DNA sequence: ATGTAGACTGTAGTCGACC
DNA sequence: GGGTCGACTACAGTCTACA
């Protein structure tokens, strides 16, 4: 699977665990909701600054964010 | 420290362990050498696709790449 | 072998709207 | 609540060149 999709899946997974809507996450991470949607669907090549913003908004470190089998 | 600098440091660290020059890495990752230089110096907001390319070129998974204290 | 600069092209990321 | 489209602006990433 492509890295963009893996990232999208991971964000969605963590967002649902935290019981946040895309709108909630977009607000917390100071990003656009339509953008969050396209990232979750693996359509965007997100930058590290925004990955970090999202990780912070989801309450995980980057280390935790990437600490998943699919990133091995 | 800013995330862009952390990424740059991590790339440089791994690159030196592998005893590769910036040119070697740029070639393996199919990126521009001047771009690698600016990323290592924390001046660029690199995208996930290019982080993955670099990780592959350095022989580590994304999980390993981010498995460092500074990403906690 | 690395840093940086300038000019260029492509795309990340914003915003409003509608389904 | 989430997906997507279109128009826009900002910046990622390329390439050449010189220190």
TrEMBL record, chains A, B:
Recorded superkingdom: Bacteria
Gene3D superfamilies the record matches: lambda repressor-like DNA-binding domains (1.10.260.40)
UniProt GO MF annotations: DNA binding; DNA-binding transcription factor activity
GO cellular component: cytosol
PROSITE patterns: HTH_CROC1
InterPro entries tied to this protein: Cro/C1-type_HTH (IPR001387), Lambda_DNA-bd_dom_sf (IPR010982), TransReg_Diox_bact_type (IPR050807)
Sorted UniProt keywords: DNA-binding, Transcription, Transcription regulation
Residues annotated as domain HTH cro/C1-type: 11-65
SMART domains: HTH_XRE
Coiled-coil ranges (or none): none
PANTHER family hit by this protein: HTH-TYPE TRANSCRIPTIONAL REGULATOR, HTH-TYPE TRANSCRIPTIONAL REGULATOR SUTR
Full protein name: DNA-binding XRE family transcriptional regulator
Organism: Mariniflexile fucanivorans
């Amino acid at each position: 699977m492509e890295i963009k999709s893996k990232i999208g899946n991971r964000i969605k997974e963590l967002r649902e665990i935290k019981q946040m809507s895309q709108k909630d996450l977009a607000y917390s991470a100071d990003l656009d909701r339509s953008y969050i949607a396209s990232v979750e669907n693996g359509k965007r090549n997100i930058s590290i600054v925004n990955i970090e913003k999202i990780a912070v908004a989801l309450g995980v470190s980057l280390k935790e964010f990437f600490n998943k089998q699919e990133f091995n």
